[in-house]
Amino acid sequence: MAKNNYKVQPETPKKKLSFKLFTLDQRIKIAIGFLLQGTAIFLALAFFSHLIHGDHDQHIIESFQTLGVKQSGAALCNWLGFIGAFVSYYCVHLWLGITAFIFLPCLFFIGIKMVTQKICPDLSLLKLIIASIFLVLWFNILLGYLHTLYPTAQILANQLGGVSYELGPLFKGLLGYGTFILLFISFVIFTVVSFNVTSFPIIYFFIRKLSPSPHKEDDTSLSKDNESKHNETYDSEYGLNNEEVSSKKKTNNLAITQTNTTQSSLISGAEDPDLENYPQHNRNIDFEVVSCTPKTLSKNLLKEQAIHTSAPIRLGNIQVENYDPTLDLSNYTYPSLDLLERYEQENISVTQEELAINKNNIVQTLHNFKINIAKIKATIGPTVTLYEIIPEAGVKVSKIKNLEDDIALNLAALGIRIIAPIPGKGTIGIEVPNKNRELVPLQEMLASEKFLKGKMDLPVVLGKSISNELFIADLARMPHLLIAGATGQGKSVGLNVLLTSLIYKKHPSQLKLVLVDPKKVELSLYNRLENHFLAKLPISEEAIITETKNVVHTLHSLCIEMDHRYELLKEAGTRNIKEYNEKFVKRILNPQAGHRFLPYIVLV
After folding, report:
1. Is the per-residue pLDDT at 414 higher than 60?
2. Residue 2 has pLDDT above 70, yes or no
3. CA–CA separation, 577 and 565 (whole Å)
4. φ, ψ for residue 254 (rounded to 5)?
5. How far apart are CA 87 and CA 94, in angstroms?
6. Is 450 annotated as belonging to a binding site?
7. Residue 487, annotated ligand binder?
8. Where is the stretch described as Disordered (predicted)?
9. Are 395 and 366 in contact (CB under 8 A)?
């Protein structure tokens, strides 16, 4: 017999009513929302009617138990009858007074939020409730304390509730007139927390009023004062200078700070030919420019590195000097700086017109996206100019970060970089490439005192910072370095600068290089260092690895060397090569036990 192929469908479990499903039901939320809105409107009418007929209804509510509900309702004047008069009597007369109205907008808004989530989705209901409770307590304390100062004032007496009558004498006995200070401080804290206030323009306005005006001369006299180091400038870090804005509505306000390494000048609106094309809001923004001039670098040639020697160790009657690893190649001389091409310093600077145009384009672009700026500060570097902007309160940093492509398009720049925010400054930085870039010569950087006298283990010159200061990094502190970028962005130049910095600073006994060049042309110039800095396998014919199949053997050999060095560090009781070599130089470690001086190995 054939089997009947059919499946028995399991019975679907019946949904059980639960409190969780009850609260998640959208219909229930909508019903409760409309109920709360109606309650808020009902209470508003009842409270407002109580302000008019409260005196008439008070004695009736107090004796409603003896008169009865019907008789009391007929005699009441409240617009909403007995219930309205009863609720108003307790909420307004006995408890909160006129401050009971503060809860009504909160109750109505909660009802709207439960009906639809599209109205103010970012506003938290919990914060709204806490704010309402704070305002109710704050006004009750204020009105109650004012009533204790002016007990005969009928206006205050008619608006107070039982809470105000209790809190007023309490704070008068505890703080006295200090109650006003407490109320002021608490209100300021409430405003800062609730509205995310980060600046107070009123305070800055009074500071500017009390401070002397820093610039009263015209552009001609100011340019002469810039030559003096005693020129005082006023830098308003936050907010706008109202006096300068009102007096220069048709000019660009460009203030330039003067320091030992900066020059300052004011850019007036006449220097910006396209000023009339920009809206009025672009002209009311403080714009400060810091033009950093490069410091004079030392011209001394690189000398041989002095080996630090400590006090000699005495073994009985034998005096033992510290070990000098450079004696293995005593005839080695450091490369001369004459091998590098020397470039004369060119007076390439960013024009005032370029600064003004970039500033206006940045402000206009941000204004198109409804982002207002309080202040802009421009710091001129050798290749880029950093525009530090201070947005007005309430502007999200991520919103400016997303406009990187739009700003680059309006500036017609090859590419910009937005630093949002700048660490330690509280500003947002926009790096814009200069049209005329200043050349940073490697010879000057290698001849600087910072490079010659630095204490780094593997110093690497990376260029100049935005303030025209030499930037040097220690390769020993970043053992895994990745250089990435698009074609033509300077990867090969950066790699050659890295190797050149190490060769000019370290002795061959202190550094060994393992170079891998799959292209066979990038690192071929370093073949001449085979007998000095380059390390290779005994079976390898070329010092620079060009065949990919030999890379595996080289990496395996480096892993073996690394494991062997870890064993030496373990036996010496040290944690790194620097501590190990210090012990070996002082002859604390015995070479007959397998210890040796360990040079740094850099794999490229």
Report:
1. yes
2. no
3. 9
4. -115, 105
5. 10
6. no
7. yes
8. 213-242
9. no
Other Cβ atoms closer than 10 A to 13 = 6
Tokens standing for 512?
A: 């060994």
Question: Is there a binding annotation on residue 492?
Answer: yes
b/e code 557-596 from CB counts within 10 Å (16+ = b): beeeeeeeeeebbeebebeebeebbeebbbbebeeeeebe
- In angstroms, the CA 139 to CA 128 distance is 17
CA distance 595 to 580: 9
Annotated binding residue 489 = yes
- Above 70 in pLDDT, residue 552? yes
The tokens describing 352, both together, are 């005032």
Q: Are 419 and 431 in contact (CB under 8 A)?
A: yes
pLDDT of res. 393: 80
Rounded Cα distance between 94 and 100, Å, is 11
How far apart CA 566 and CA 183 sit, in angstroms, is 66
Task: Return the C-alpha torsion angle 352, 358, 359, 361, nearest 10.
Answer: 140
Q: What would the DSSP string read from start to end of 429-471?
A: EEEEE-SSPPP--HHHHHTSHHHHS---SSEEEEEE-TTS-EE
488 is in an annotated binding site: yes
Q: Say which residues have a Cβ less than 8 Å from residue 568's Cβ, sequence separation at least 6.
A: 580, 594, 595, 596, 598
Please classify residue 134 by burial: count the beta carbons closer than 10 Å to its beta carbon, then call 0-12 exposed, 13-18 middle and 19+ buried.
middle
The annotation status of 490 as a binding-site residue, yes or no, is yes
Q: What single DSSP character describes residue 467?
A: T
Q: Mean pLDDT lowest for which of 128-142, 156-170, 199-213, 484-498?
A: 199-213
Residue whose tokens read 């000023």: 275
What average pLDDT does range 579-604 have in this prediction? 90
Q: Could you tell me the two tokens for 284?
A: 């009311």
- The reported pLDDT for the residue numbered 290 is 65
Q: Which tokens sit at 84?
A: 């309205």
C-alpha pair distances (Å), 149 with each of 27, 168, 170, 356, 389? 52, 9, 13, 59, 49
Rounded CA-CA distance 280/275 in Å is: 9
316 labelled binding-site residue: no
Question: Does residue 288 surpass a pLDDT of 70?
Answer: no
Report d(CA 559, CA 511) in Å as an integer. Answer: 17
Confidence band for 257, pLDDT divided at 50, 70 and 90: very low
Q: pTM of this prediction?
A: 0.48
At 563, the pLDDT band (50, 70, 90 cuts) reads very high
Token pair for 321: 């000097």
Whether 365 has a pLDDT exceeding 80, the answer reads yes
Question: 3-state class of 149 per DSSP?
Answer: helix
Q: CA–CA separation, 440 vs 442, rounded Å?
A: 6
Rounded Cα distance, 234 and 207, in Å: 12
